[in-house]
Amino acid sequence: MAEHYSSFDRKGTRWLLQRLTAVFLIGVLAFHFMLLHFVNHAADVTFNGTTMRMQQLGYFLTMIAFLVTATFHGVNGVYNALINQGLEGTQRSVVKWALVAASVALVVQGVRVAFAMTNGGLF
Amino acid sequence: MSQSYDRGLVEDFGRWRDFSAGMWAWVFHKFTGWVLIGYLFTHIAVLSTAIPAAGGDPSIYTGTLQGLEELLVVRFLEVGLLAVAVFHILNGIRLLFVDLGVGLTAQDKSFYASLVLTGAIVIASVPTFLAGAI
Q1: pTM to 2 decimals?
Q2: Whether residue B113 sits in one domain with residue B128
Q3: Tens digits of residue pLDDT in B52-75
Q4: For a Cys-Cys bond, which of A50, A63, A121, B121 suits A55, CB 3.0-4.6 Å?
Q5: pLDDT band at A56 (very low <50, low <70, confident <90, very high)
Q6: What's the CATH number for A13-118?
Q7: Apex CA B46: angle with CA B45 and CA B49, to 5°?
Q8: Are A84 and B11 inside 8 Å of each other by CB?
Q9: Would you call B130 an interface residue with chain A, using a CB distance cutoff of 8 Å?
Q10: In Å, how far are A43, A53, B21 from A40, measured between CA atoms?
Q11: B106 and B63, same structural domain?
């Protein structure tokens, strides 16, 4: 059997979450591309069209889950890639908290955008 | 019974000529991952025009998105984004199977299949992505 190689500590919570978010993102990212490039052409997107989609509770919640899981999966992937490159000690801590801050900022702004896209018509 | 295999450091890009299929898959997965997380931040920044749009000026959102779509370079960048996303998805599925220990002996073939399928999907999508721009 070939030697297994992975960037992650297979016993870790982050390793498991990276896989679980991957499974979710495989479906949602493909759905997002299909809906906004093939069903609705990207060049034809309008604020009214976006609002109509985001006012559907199921779609709204899916997009919020998409934002949170994509942010975790992406930033956790970057963090692990940097650890692979030899990041350690104080530098590792600084990078870790910078990435946490960037993630929180992205999710907060993404949620603000999502609510703006409902144009007050979600509830 | 396991056997050890000295693959050398994947992180040492100077020896890229010696890379095997699995190592190229690792490199491509990292590269596409960096592109996708970079794009996510950019995407939310552009979509933030929804905030003033909801404040009473919907044209700032519609105009920004449609203005970008009028640029041919943006259409080509979107095709590139599709290629990056499709490869990351297909190779990600391959990695999940590898993690489950399924198909380990064919992991090189599944990498080549990911590349071929990515190419086919991207080529088939080009007319849709460029429609109206040329």
Answers
A1: 0.88
A2: yes
A3: 999 999 999 999 999 999 999 999
A4: A121
A5: very high
A6: 1.20.1300
A7: 100
A8: yes
A9: no
A10: 9, 11, 37
A11: no
